[in-house]
From TrEMBL:
Stretches the record annotates as Disordered: 637-664
Biased composition (Basic and acidic residues): 646-664
Matching InterPro entries: FAD/NAD-bd_sf, GDP_dissociation_inhibitor, Rab_escort, RAE1_2_domI_C
Descriptive protein name: RAE1 geranylgeranyltransferase
Gene3D superfamilies to which the protein is assigned, alphabetical: FAD/NAD(P)-binding domain, Guanine Nucleotide Dissociation Inhibitor, domain 1, Guanine Nucleotide Dissociation Inhibitor, domain 2
Pfam family, one: GDI
Entry's localization field: Cytoplasm, Cytosol
Family: Belongs to the Rab GDI family.
Start and end residues of each RAE1/2 domain: 472-600
Protein keywords: Cytoplasm, GTPase activation
Organism lineage: Eukaryota, Metazoa, Chordata, Craniata, Vertebrata
Entry superkingdom: Eukaryota
Major localization class: cytoplasm
């Protein structure tokens, strides 16, 4: 192919797979001046971390149901020299298993129903990042680069993928801190369809001092959707879901960002935060005693809770205060270091209600996890409170698949070359040194490399048979209402469900509203995740039956079932979790590194730690993801004319000297507050620069 022939014949690093870990490493290598070739056999970015429109997800489902044929070795074997051997890689993804789809929405005729605003697909897999590039079919991603023009950068989204490229600023809904004792619920979102907006206000902002500061372009149009829970709901049909397909951004992986987690710290440190927008998770819920209840986690939640007695409130606050500084009181848990956290809680005279809250909804650990793991998880939860809101979590607008794309863009800006729909057939290994010398790509071209990174699903079946890995059970539901009724419909909720029976796993649920830009108006996107015991359907369907109704006929429902959200559409599948597999288990050359893919945890620490570890193995003397320069700091070649003063500089962005804490501007931040009288009304307010 002409495009493959135009690729350089040698790179410092070749990365196969565009998941989160691979994308972070590619960006880190490119940032320190290494030449990077980043390829993916799929037509979209993210791999098993990707986000899809609804029609894109249907195409992905069909792709994973197809039988895979073994690729024959052809004339490219002539490129293998004496003293070399090859390691074959998978040409197709076999990691997704037990895919089951159920449609419960009314079956209206869908002839001639087309996806709204669907645009024509382009065939050229290679292009230059262009400020006026068209959108791809099935993609909600915009393409606009205010910094540099990057040659040979693959378009960041193909058919069915839902990611955007023009979000250059991190927008975070900010609420009052844990210490303030004031509970606020952010409901702000960016609405790209003003015609659908019920009310258009500017946004107010309130920020806790000394937080890492996050900025937003003041020229961006921000619309606030003022909603209330309707007593009667219009029936949503399957044809409507198909027609509104582009409003959905459905993640294959369901995770959140701890506001004091390693991913948020890395986004701020590397300046990649400018490429994404985020929304607060508004509430944490749990299922117990046959109903869904809100978990009190902040000071305001605890003392405002009607579910706890005054004695329970004091007991809970006392225990949480201990967990924040548990390292300073080792005598309290010294006898339980080798025992479970569940056993430790029993010695604290906590009521079963409180023990359930702490174990499953705050620490979010298993019954078998040790005491130190539970205390560490509880401390991490509490330390993240109040940084950006009254819960510890953030969710990226347009889905989690945005995050790998952000790092891919950083890599491209610093010279990385991207090729989608472009696989690697094999590795060429020197028999004497046992190092990977080169790769043979899907076009038969031999490309030399110093280091090679591969996502675990690309390894052959022979390698997978040598290792023991776990499975993750996943379900994706489209529902018509929230699990717990509230004054506002625009809430993101984390729901924890303890094991319903002995031997069953605990289930984590993330319920997303339309203001998260992941589903159409009038629906909710619900992600269920747990460690696999059986198939995804067998693991998760008991929880779905407890919390949701799969019967759309109102006349046939009982009184309890009628109060539950209706499931309009459901998908179940299993995916592998290689996070516990040691690199040595694969028996690969010492300059070949395996990225584990998604793990079953709620946060992203595993991926960040692995990315940093692999980077330092390759380049021990280089800094991991140093800050990228701001646009106004770039020196352009040519006539020497300095660029126009950046609008962001006008907003009070100050230069940071050596040794100072690096932050972004906080003059304009997005937040929202819940006011019972005004029903989430918002207004513009400028915060004076400190």
């Amino acid at each position: 192919m002409a495009v493959a022939d135009s690729l350089p014949g040698e790179f410092d690093v070749i990365v196969l797979g565009t998941g989160l870990t691979e994308s972070i490493i590619a960006a880190a290598c490119s940032r320190v001046g290494k030449s990077v070739l980043h390829v993916d056999r799929q037509a979209y970015y993210g791999g098993n971390w990707a986000s899809f429109t609804f029609s894109g997800l249907l195409a992905w489902i069909e792709e994973n149901k197809e039988a895979f044929s073994k690729e024959e070795i052809t004339e490219w074997m002539n490129d293998i020299n004496e003293g070399e051997e090859i390691i074959l890689l998978n040409s197709s993804d076999k990691s997704i298993m037990n895919v089951e789809v159920f449609n419960f929405a009314s079956q209206d005729p869908v002839e001639d129903v087309k996806e709204e605003a669907s645009l024509q697909k382009k065939d050229d897999p290679f292009l230059t990042v262009d400020p006026v590039e068209d959108l791809k079919e099935g993609s909600s991603q915009k393409e606009n680069d205010l910094f540099l023009t990057v040659d040979l950068v693959e378009d960041l989204k193909e058919e069915g993928s839902s990611q955007r490229k023009d979000d250059l600023f991190l927008t975070v809904a900010v609420a009052e801190s844990f210490e303030s004792g004031i509970e606020k619920s952010p409901d702000t979102y960016v609405n790209e369809h003003p015609a659908e907006t019920l009310e258009h206000n500017d946004v107010c902002t309130s920020s806790q001092k000394k937080n890492p500061e996050l900025s937003i372009d003041e020229k961006r149009s921000v619309n606030v959707c003022k909603t209330s829970v309707a007593e009667t709901r219009k029936t949503i049909t399957y044809s409507q879901i198909i027609r509104e397909s582009r409003r959905f951004n459905i993640d294959l992986v369901s995770k959140l960002l701890y506001s004091r987690g390693s991913l948020v710290d890395l986004l701020i440190k590397s300046n990649v935060s400018r490429y994404a927008e985020f929304k607060n998770v508004n509430r944490i819920l749990t299922y117990q005693n046959g109903s869904v209840e809100q978990v009190p986690c902040s000071r305001a939640d605890v003392f405002g809770s009607k579910q706890l007695t005054m004695v329970e409130k004091r007991m809970l606050m006392k225990f949480l205060s201990f967990c924040i500084e548990y390292e300073q009181h080792p005598e309290e848990y010294a006898d339980f270091k080798e025992r479970t956290f569940s056993d430790f809680l029993k010695t604290k005279n906590l009521t079963p209600n409180l023990a359930n809250f702490i174990l499953h909804s705050i620490a979010m650990v298993l019954d078998t996890d040790l005491t130190t793991e539970g205390l560490r998880a509880t401390q991490h939860f509490l330390q993240s409170l109040g940084r950006y809101g009254n819960t510890p979590f953030l969710f990226p607008l347009y889905g989690l698949g945005e995050i790998p794309q952000c790092f891919c863009r950083m890599c491209a800006v610093f010279g990385g070359i991207y090729c989608l729909r472009h696989g690697i057939r094999c590795l060429v290994v020197d028999k004497e040194t046992r190092r990977c010398k080169a790769i043979i790509d899907s076009c038969g071209k031999r490309i030399s490399c110093g280091h090679f990174l591969v996502e675990s699903s690309y390894l052959s079946d022979d390698h997978h048979q040598k290792v023991k890995y776990r499975l993750i059970s996943r379900a994706v539901l489209i529902t018509d209402r929230s699990l717990l009724k509230a004054d506002s419909e625009q809430l993101i909720s984390l729901v924890t469900v303890p094991p319903l029976k002995s031997g069953q796993p605990a289930v984590r649920i993330i319920e997303l509203c339309s203001s998260s830009m992941t589903c159409m108006q009038g629906t909710y996107l619900v992600h269920l995740t747990c460690s696999s015991v059986e198939t995804a359907k067998e693991d998760l369907s008991p929880v779905v039956s407890k919390l949701f109704s799969e019967n759309m006929k109102a006349g046939e429902k009982g009184e309890v079932e009628a109060e539950r959200p209706n499931v309009l559409w459901a998908l179940y599948f299993n995916m592998p979790d290689f996070s516990s597999v040691e690199r040595s288990s694969y028996d690969l050359p010492n300059n070949v590194y395996v990225c584990c893919g998604p793990d079953s945890g709620l946060g992203n620490d595993c991926s960040i730690q692995q990315a940093e570890h692999i980077f330092h193995q390759m380049f021990p003397d280089e800094e991991f993801c140093p800050p990228a320069p701001n646009p106004e700091d770039i020196v352009y070649d040519g006539d020497g004319t300095p660029p126009e003063e950046s609008v962001f500089k006008e907003h009070g962005e100050s230069e940071v000297g050596d040794g100072e804490e690096r932050t972004l501007d906080t003059k304009y931040l997005v937040t929202s507050t819940t006011n019972e009288a005004e029903d989430a009304q918002e207004s513009v307010k400028e915060i004076p620069t400190e």
